[in-house]
User: Fold this.
Amino acid sequence: MATWSIAPLHIEDLDEFVQCQFLAFVGNPLHDVVYPTQPASAEKHRKAINEGSKLQADNEIIYLKAVDIRSGNIVGGIKCCYYVGEDVLTSSPYAAGITDVEAKATDNDQYCCYVVNEFLGKRASDIKGQHARKFIAKDRKHGWIIDILFVHPEYSRRGIGRELVARTCSMADRRGLKAIVEASPAGKRTYELCGYQSKEVVTIPPKQWTDKPVQLYYWMEREPLRQVRR
Ligand SMILES: CC(C)(COP(=O)(O)OP(=O)(O)OC[C@H]1O[C@@H](n2cnc3c(N)ncnc32)[C@H](O)[C@@H]1OP(=O)(O)O)[C@@H](O)C(=O)NCCC(=O)NCCS
Assistant:
């Protein structure tokens, strides 16, 4: 019997959610760049949740947590975004990341800025607007993206990651939406088990920052189980 359960995240869970997120992502170079510190990341999520609640009913930022039933502790989490229209990529959850980094001037900040811009620039050119290369819905206006997925290292390989992704897959299926994710090497298998297919291996070279790694992730897509007519 499962010793964990999944539930929607409450705003008061945010610090614990981020603490677990950081534990799970130790050693992931892209996470270090996109989410530089725990307090800044918690703030970013808080802003996303607050902004999310102000969005139209069709636009949602969905956070789920996995909880150890015995201890009550958060042991995993997922964040995904559903949006209508083009606003998602210019609204605060994304743009905030870039602005935060650009405002600072150290060499490392400049590197972070470069990586975040490459990462989000690719996302924008691939899925945003009428000229998007890899639009999600047939009408090119609806998007479904998993933004964060993590499981506490002590709870890994128990099926928690897979269940978190599966929950969001059913949400996308209900809306007939194609879903995308920029998967880490560690996450790729979990997504494959939920029906995502890798379409592209993306690398971000270190350019002049020769002490930095090549950033690598998989652009993955999942077709909905049923199509909804729009
Ligand atoms: C990726 C992650 C969420 C998987 O969570 P999990 O609860 O361990 O995953 P599951 O138990 O549902 O396992 C799903 C599959 O992934 C595999 N898997 C789990 N961790 C893995 C890892 N580190 N490397 C490769 N495969 C892994 C499992 O073997 C399982 O496949 P199997 O059933 O065929 O054996 C977790 O390892 C994690 O938080 N990693 C660090 C953060 C990260 O990279 N997140 C993904 C961002 S896109």
